[in-house]
Amino acid sequence: MTDQALPTTAQVTALQGRRASPGTAPAIEFDDVSLRFISADGNATVALRNFSMKVARGEFVAIVGPTGCGKSTTLNMITGLLKPTVGTVKIMGQPIQGIDPRIGFVFQADAVFPWKSVRDNVAAGPIFRGKPKAEALALADQWIRRVGLEGFGDHYPHQLSGGMRKRVALAQTFINQPEILLMDEPFSALDMQTRTLMQDELLGLWSGTGGSVVFVTHDLEEAIALADRVFVLSARPATLKCVYDIDLPRPRVMSQVRYDPQFIDLSKRIWDDLREEVVIH
After folding, report:
1. What angle do CA 249, 254, 258 make, to 5 degrees?
2. DSSP assignment of 13-59
3. pTM for this predicted structure
């Protein structure tokens, strides 16, 4: 990618939705959304203002912005846990109505049952969705192998390292075959080496699903290395400042892509936009 091909701050918002196939509704769509919270003492706080975003089916999008700007709020609106004060949020072309079973969520903290084995943790989702227990356990064994935990099915979460617990979380999520995967700082607590391995693991699992991903992170390099597009939010009240198209070839290897000249150039450009908001914040 040449320097001329990189989007400027004034041009990048035009990149939204360009991957969507004609006639196909985006997997996720925010249309001029604002969100206002009213505190117990009656004061109003605007968390999100005039925010629009489209995520195509099969697309990997990352959201970055200063601390407290509302990145996680966007995920909660996609799940239906928060409703917009103004504007609409749609999933597969339809307004959100409650919790959608097509959505998977990976949190920063491990969402595992400490009293259940790895195998039972991974099987819990399919069982809850009505799959017979024997089938769910057999499927869990397959996913345990896929995330590199073969031989640990009978272990409990407290017997695993942080990276191994995160592999359990990925298996818990992907076993349900989500069409949309929401990830909120999922690897932030891991050391750099483990984090890099988990990023590769995530890309490997996602590449075979055709699902859409919205990945919230404070790590700009992580966002660029993983995503097809990076959305930069302003300081609160958050607005969409710009969108960058990440034209790096796939498949990507995390330990190598950071040294690509295109990656370094993008990092500088996006950081220039983000730094202004961090200073403001």
Report:
1. 75
2. GGGTTTTSPTT---SEEEEEEEEEEE-TTS-EEEEEEEEEEEE-TT-
3. 0.86
